[in-house]
Each structure stands twice: as structure tokens, then as C-alpha cells.
Write a structure and sequence with these properties.
- The chain is α/β, with parallel strands linked by helices.
- β1, α1 and β2 form a beta-alpha-beta unit.
- The radius of gyration is 18 Å and the shape is globular.
């Protein structure tokens, strides 16, 4: 397994050498880049160059990339234009596919192995599914060409369940598309234990964070009601070989000292995955 932290907690900051340096200084050597403009636009030459130099000159590695959700994540939520590869509006859908493909091509040049993708499904009706399938064929062709595995993520609604994702993968009929199972999302609208079992055959990536089963809080493990000892046991017994990413709250407050404490805590959880003698309970309450 490959263990990472998502850059989602820093979504309101633009990636820079200081952020990558803080990650390394606090024991984090692998990340999932959240490729969301303006936080991290890997299609931009400056950002691309920064990521490329960081991997070449430091120990930081990019295990996966989360493809963008918005064309541009502006501060005012109502003004954000969502990327939607399932849209029945051909103009929105074609622009969305083009944006996703551009990011896949950039990720390919950076040798990032896995790209996490939101489907955009909202109604789960026939028109939406057909639009999505048409988009996926195009996106998958770009992913194969650039040596990237596509991981479709379950959402925070019942409309994007693991079963629906499996159905989509089977219809596209490719081994290049799998699932990014977000256990926090499963805890709200499904059952993360059954979802792990269902998705096992198709699992490329895993997003880990906690909640209390009602809101998508992106808490640290054991701050909600998800049984993380069960999850880490599943990963070890199943011999999962994909990417495991700690995806924590995307509105991280605080000064530099707060951020350092946050990263130290995140690093401890990541080390817990890599050490088969530890469980998360041991990390939280050392014996």
C-alpha cells in the first residue's frame, strides 16, 4: 500500500515550496494533490514546474491526484462553476471533459499513477448515465494514453453508490477504471463495511476520514463513529496494493504552529497504517 495525506486541508492556500517543506518537516513524504484551481493547477506551467522540482529534489512523492471539482474555486460558493461530466448540457459536459483531460495529461507528465474523479451524477436518470458514459470513454482513452488509472469516487449522496460505480465500470469494460472508496461518504449514505467488500475487486484508492454519520465532516480517525481498526484490518488482510489517503477537513484554520501540530498528528496516523503492529487505538493511547 501507498499512504498519503490529501492537500485538501490547504485548499484555500496556493501550493508553494513552504507548504511542501512543512509536509516533509513534519514526517509526511507522500501526498494526494488536490488539483483544484487556484490551490494547485497542474496544467499551469509554474505549478507544474514546482511539483516536478519538488519530486526531483526532495523525498516528497505524489501518489495520486484528485481531479478538479470546479473550473475555479472562488471564495463565493454561489459563483463557483462546477465541472460536470454527466451534464445533459453538451456545452457544460464538453468543457468539463476537456478540463479533466488537460489535468490527466499534466498528471501523466508528472508520472502520477492514480487520478480520482467525481462523476457529477445528481439524478441518476438514463440521460445522465448516458452522458457520463460518453464522457468516461473519452477520459479513459486519455488516461490509458498517459499511463494513469482512473478511480471513480462515491459521493455524499445515494445517487453515487458503490453499486452504481461498479455498473459504470462494467459498461465501459476496462481494467483501467476502478473505485476510490471514500469511507466517510459511505458512513453517511451507505455502510462502509459492506462497501469495502463490494468495491474490493475494483479498489484503486481509499479516502479515509471520520464523521458521525450525518455530515461530511472530514475529521481525524476516531473523532466520529467509524471503526478504523476494522478498516486497517481489512486493508491488511485483503493485501490491498493501492493508494490510501487521509483526506481531512478542507477549511483548516490556525497559524503555523497549529498547522505543524495538525501535520504531526496526520503523520502519526499515516505511520500507523505502515506499521502492522500498530492500530489507531495504539497511536491515540500508547501503551
Amino acid at each position: 500500500m501507498k499512504f498519503s495525506i490529501s492537500t485538501l486541508p490547504f485548499i484555500d492556500k496556493k501550493v508553494d515550496p513552504l507548504l511542501f517543506g512543512l509536509l516533509l518537516q513534519n514526517g509526511i513524504e507522500s501526498v494526494e494533490l488536490f488539483a483544484q484551481r487556484p490551490h494547485c493547477d497542474i496544467t499551469d506551467p509554474d505549478c507544474f514546474g514546482l511539483v516536478e522540482r519538488t519530486e526531483r529534489e526532495t523525498n516528497l512523492r505524489i501518489n495520486s491526484v484528485h481531479l478538479p471539482i470546479y473550473f475555479n474555486r472562488v471564495p463565493e460558493v454561489t459563483e463557483r462553476k462546477k465541472i460536470n461530466i454527466s451534464s445533459s448540457d453538451n456545452n457544460i459536459r464538453s468543457n468539463s471533459v476537456r478540463e479533466i483531460v488537460r489535468h490527466i495529461e499534466a498528471a501523466g507528465r508528472l508520472n502520477i499513477p492514480v487520478a480520482v474523479l467525481h462523476t457529477g451524477i445528481e439524478k441518476n436518470d438514463e440521460n445522465e448515465i448516458n452522458s457520463l458514459l460518453e464522457s468516461l470513454f473519452i477520459i479513459n482513452e486519455a488516461a490509458v494514453k498517459n499511463g494513469i488509472l482512473l478511480a471513480l469516487e462515491n459521493h455524499t449522496t445515494e445517487s453515487v453508490s458503490v453499486n452504481i460505480l461498479i455498473s459504470l465500470i462494467q459498461k465501459v469494460d476496462t481494467e483501467n477504471i476502478g473505485i476510490c472508496l471514500d469511507v466517510g461518504h459511505s458512513n453517511i449514505f451507505s455502510n462502509y463495511m459492506s462497501d469495502l467488500s463490494e468495491a474490493r475487486r475494483y479498489l484503486f484508492s481509499l479516502h479515509l476520514h471520520d464523521n458521525n454519520g450525518e455530515e461530511d465532516e472530514h475529521l481525524f480517525p476516531y473523532e466520529g463513529n467509524i471503526d478504523f481498526d476494522y478498516i486497517i484490518g481489512f486493508l491488511r488482510t485483503s493485501k490491498f496494493q493501492g493508494v490510501v489517503t487521509l483526506e481531512l477537513n478542507g477549511e483548516h484554520p490556525g497559524n503555523d504552529e497549529d498547522i505543524k501540530e495538525f501535520l504531526k498528528k496526520a503523520a502519526a496516523f499515516i505511520r500507523g497504517f505502515a506499521n502492522p503492529r500498530l492500530t489507531y487505538s495504539n497511536i491515540l493511547e500508547p501503551t
